Amino acid sequence: MAEPLVIEVTRGARVESLHRVSAAVCDAAGALVFSHGDTVTPVFPRSAVKVFQAIPFVESGSADAYGFTNRELSLACASHSGEEGHRRLAAEMLERAGLGEPTLECGCHWPFDMSVALDLARTGGAPTPLGNNCSGKHAGFLCTAVHLGEETRGYVEAAHPVQRRALAVMEDLTGSALPPSMCGTDGCSIPTAAAPLAGFARGFAKLAARQGAEPSRLAAGRRLIEACMAEPWLMSGTGRACLTLMEAAPGRVFAKTGAEGVFCGAVPELGLGFALKAQDGTSRAAEAAVAHLLAEMLRESEPALAERYDAMARRTLKNWEGREVGEIRVRRA
Amino acid sequence: MAEPLVIEVTRGARVESLHRVSAAVCDAAGALVFSHGDTVTPVFPRSAVKVFQAIPFVESGSADAYGFTNRELSLACASHSGEEGHRRLAAEMLERAGLGEPTLECGCHWPFDMSVALDLARTGGAPTPLGNNCSGKHAGFLCTAVHLGEETRGYVEAAHPVQRRALAVMEDLTGSALPPSMCGTDGCSIPTAAAPLAGFARGFAKLAARQGAEPSRLAAGRRLIEACMAEPWLMSGTGRACLTLMEAAPGRVFAKTGAEGVFCGAVPELGLGFALKAQDGTSRAAEAAVAHLLAEMLRESEPALAERYDAMARRTLKNWEGREVGEIRVRRA
């Protein structure tokens, strides 16, 4: 097995903490173009595969029936920050299908971004399902169910057609069988199914290269990726890693985070997909690793862009007084 | 080298993420009673050694000169949650020495505890140096400087007598030389010096067993530990791991967390000290590991108490809707 990427967190001249990250870069045929660490043991992709989960929303004709544009498609693939614009658009999607906030079964949480959470508290607000980072994905699920004449209640359960379709897309694109033994429950109550990193990378490569699955499925997935690249803020939020990564190469790089240190994505012009996971589940490790991985992928064809991603893979750490105390960086091989 | 403790984070029937934790349990002579992983490579102890850093505050006579009780001594060793009671007592300590909040050089941050931070935002508040989790430690530093007739400005710098005394105590108790090459800057701007886990464990064992250093130093350190055990909320905060660990065995167990996944502590009745670090710096791993380590230490002499710590080493994880989705647990050897 290849060595994992090691992300170092330094303080002064010493390494204080370190993280191990596994990563796979694949082409549409499933060949590993390069990798780090363990790409075989199944991992939960969490929110990093929201594009796969949203494919039935497009394939079913639901997204078009409600007249949705890139904005709604991006939000349907989002782990958003629950900012005002995210909440409002999720509400509008539900309204389009004649639904309201109470139909959402994702639960609610304070926004992950501290400044958004504090703003909400300052104005006397409280968490709502529309502010859940997954509300756009759930709005997509609900619109699809309504469009297909299905019961909306219980749409988060594994047995509901909405989740069965999402699982079938996942099996198709990853090339992995995903029986109940591979499934857990995600933060927003829908099933999440574990598969090898190489499977997720291959799935995104299929969308990048437009080959390896039914044309209608490839078209739906590619349309969602294009929507996310066109409206990256709706898929993420102010200051978020996904936004920074995609804004560095507008319309050319797709990168999506998932809880517990996961990233998946694609570089369409290279026909490549990728997936990575920090073994310990930390975001700071996954964020450094994804920037490094994009730099590795683009080093030959786009050295200047690769340098930008290299710079993102290194982050200065400051203390409460603003003094530089260390950095996060990829260990040199 | 012994295998590290492995902390597993599960989802459904699968392990989703895992953490490696090194740990040392020592007696006052420095003998390793038992250990996990690497106890030799120097690590930054961060706030887990605030008791050591507060020893000069007691040794110098400053704490007694200002009439401080267990409450102030505990706050001087605290990484507190910045709750109203913490902030008020830190202000009172400064007032006793004729100082005010502007003399604090620790910087400020929103309280780590989300509910405390949200309460502060709701009432129109903002972070202040008194709310910094280290404000009690800094108040102790400042009271000592004033008592000894030293300049207070720049008390966070390595060259200031306050920090030189703290470093000398650390070298004495850990038995490690701590030259500048071993030092970094902590979150609150004071130096933090890296030493082997076994050194920190030995230092706390000296205080537990009251042997291995000058009697006045042992008495000062022991008095601080007793104060923390008597007033554990002032050393931590509502719902915090340190508080739960110490409330499980009032007056019998001392445990203190530090940033980047560190815990240090002592079980005085066993004459043992301990120190641990999660290699990846995560709190969830360190918190599970410290409960497990206390259970291991107490298994023979106090099986019922050991069982309580075993239970704390295992934590159910729920999602936003309150569904059980997994757990944090120590991997069986």
The major β-sheet of chain A equals:
8 strands, antiparallel
Shape of chain A: globular
Number of helices of chain A: 13
**Structural Rg of chain A:** 19 Å
Biggest interface between chains: A-B, 52 and 51 residues
* Cα-to-Cα separation, first versus last residue of chain A: 15 Å
Report the top-level CATH class of chain A: Alpha Beta
What is the element string of chain A, with H for helices and E for strands? EEEHHHHHHHEEHHHHEEEHHEE
Q: Tell me roughly what share of residues is in helical segments of chain A.
A: 40-55%
Oligomer: homodimer
Could you list the spans of chain A in which at least 5 consecutive residues all have pLDDT below 50? none
Classify the fold: give the CATH topology of chain A. Answer: Beta-lactamase
Mean of residue pLDDT values of chain A: 97
Give the beta-strand count of chain A: 10
Beta-strand percent range of chain A: 15-25%
Give the helix/strand class of chain A: alpha+beta
- How many domain modules of chain A? 1
Description:
The structure is a homodimer of 333-residue chains. Chain A is an alpha+beta fold. Chain A has a single domain (5-330), classed as Beta-lactamase. Helix content of chain A is 41%, strand content 18%. Chain A is built from 13 helices and ten strands. Chain A has helices at residues 50-59, 62-65, 70-76, 84-96, 114-122, 135-147, 161-174, 197-209, 215-230, 232-235, 241-247, 283-298, 303-312, and strands at residues 5-11, 14-26, 32-36, 183-185, 191-193, 254-258, 262-267, 272-278, 315-318, 324-330. In chain A, the strands form two sheets. In chain A, strands 1, 2, 3, 6, 7, 8, 9 and 10 form an eight-stranded antiparallel beta sheet that branches. In chain A, strands 4-5 form a two-stranded antiparallel sheet. In chain A, a hairpin with a 5-residue loop joins strand 2 and strand 3 (32-36). In chain A, helix 1 crosses helix 9 and helix 3 packs across helix 9 (215-230). The longest helix of chain A has 16 residues, at 215-230. The first copy, chain A, is globular. At the A-B interface, strand 2, helix 5 and strand 4 of A face strand 2, helix 5 and strand 4 of B.
